[in-house]
Amino acid sequence: MRTFIANLDCELSWARENSPGPHKHLPTPVQRAVSEFSHPLRVFTREGDTFFTLTDLGTAASAISEAEEVLVWGQTTEYAGKPSPKDLQAPWQERLWQLTCSSSIAAACNDRSFALSLGLPPSLELADVRIVTSMQDLDAYVAFAPLGPDQAWVAKAPWSASGREKLKRRGREVVGEQRAFATRLLKRYGKLLVEPWMKRIADFGVAGLIAESVADSIVFPPHQLLCDAGGVFRGIRVDDEGTRAMLRVHGDDLIDSAHTVVKALHAQGYRGPFGIDSFLYEVNGGTQLRAVCEINARMSFGHVARATAEASGQPTSDFTLGC
Prior knowledge:
The protein has three domains: 2-82, no CATH class; 112-121 and 198-322, 2-Layer Sandwich (D-amino Acid Aminotransferase, Chain A, domain 1), CATH 3.30.470.20; 127-196, Dna Ligase, domain 1 (2-Layer Sandwich), CATH 3.30.1490. It is 32% helix and 24% strand. Strands 8, 9, 10, 11, 12, 13 and 14 form a seven-stranded antiparallel sheet that branches. A four-stranded antiparallel sheet has the order 4-7-5-6, covered by helices on one side. It has a three-stranded parallel sheet with strand order 2-1-3, with no helix packed on it. By secondary structure, it is of the alpha+beta class. It has nine helices and 14 strands. The chain starts with a strand and ends with a strand. Helix 1 (10-18) packs across helix 5 (103-110).
């Protein structure tokens, strides 16, 4: 028997185990909304498999314990994968079921600070990205660091999803409610990643699988991420002419950076699906690529969009998954 667990709140589990807290469960309305977003993940199941969303997990314990194979959105202590037998000749969708790792490794790889150690060329990185551990550190950064247009900057929790747990602001001071919010974030997480907020032109992603060896791992072609003005994910375009035009310029850098991420995740001991978020931004009258904005050492909607397009038989040109 196989079971799929759509634990799209896995970042909360990693935060609970690796930071001071407290970290509250998602409110019930949010859980319901996230559960609705989970249904496209059924593309990775077949007839006879069981499928659990966030709102189902309270009744899932016995089914999960009896399952011989378990695939999860993100590897956590509470919801861990049970791999199926290895078969490198299987389609990539089935290979997802063959890969797993510990929650501690997944948490370390999803910590936003992990992406700072990749050693990418400076031309592909965003300058002045730092980790702060106190309000004094944050005040010093905001006061003296080069910021984005209109003195814009953003502070992000080490583990969060869908644009939650971050403070985006303009100006050289952190005051009022924004200061109170930043103080609460630092108390809960112990550290924040802070960086200039740049004017984005386009967002991209690369998805793939980390296998038992680097050579057997998979990196898919880049796709376009559809995000709102605040950088919150809204959908995916697997392939279209506009995306291809941008990738003719930046595709090689995205793929090269993705292979660097594969090696780093593999060396850390991570096995399973991964995704990378990247973006193109304006700077000094031109454009520049930030090749790795975030690393998601878990399943992503990049996997879902690609699998859905393949399963439907649609040409991948002009396929969009909205969430």
